[in-house]
Amino acid sequence: MDALDQGLLYVxxxxxxxxxxxxxxxxxxxxxxxxxxxxxxxxxxxxxFTVDRYQIWEALDHGASAVLLIVAALDxxxxxxxxxxxxxxxxxxxxxxxxxxxLERALxxxxxIVGVNARDLxxxxxxxxxxxxxxxxxxxxxxxxxxxxxxGPDDVLxxxxxxxxxxxxxxxxxxxxxxxxxxxxxVAAGRAAAxxxxxxxxxxxx
Length: 206
Prior knowledge:
By secondary structure, the chain is α/β, with parallel strands linked by helices.
């Protein structure tokens, strides 16, 4: 199934946003995928290793509503510069952290959105307690996103109970036998938990 077809299933399920991988080498994504899915009208996150200002304007040009900044991949100066550049471009920014040290760094730039990724990008191991552990340290007024490790509706409900404002789901949807049915069930759980369920459009890792 290509990116557009999968994106259509998610739109039909009522997701709040779709994250689209554009990294071509490891994750087989593309800017063409982003542009095609963004044309469906649902807000899209460009999910990539953003390390240069050019990528921000490139994302905007291809229809993205938001970009991803991974704190572990950036020094403090680049993190701030890229966050400021995305803000100037009118894009939302998902600032992704994995541990307390990264969260401290993220909070210095006063982000509007912080995502806690339960998956360690170096080992790919999932720490299912990561969001619950870090959520109390996320400043009030910041949108808190639980990323990775969502296996089904029960995990969405749990994230809501832990204070998540949204969840980002990747692998569970991509590998589901019926992605639309899975997305529909996650959205329903998100509504029950009073949070929107976000999904990762075509990632092999969330």
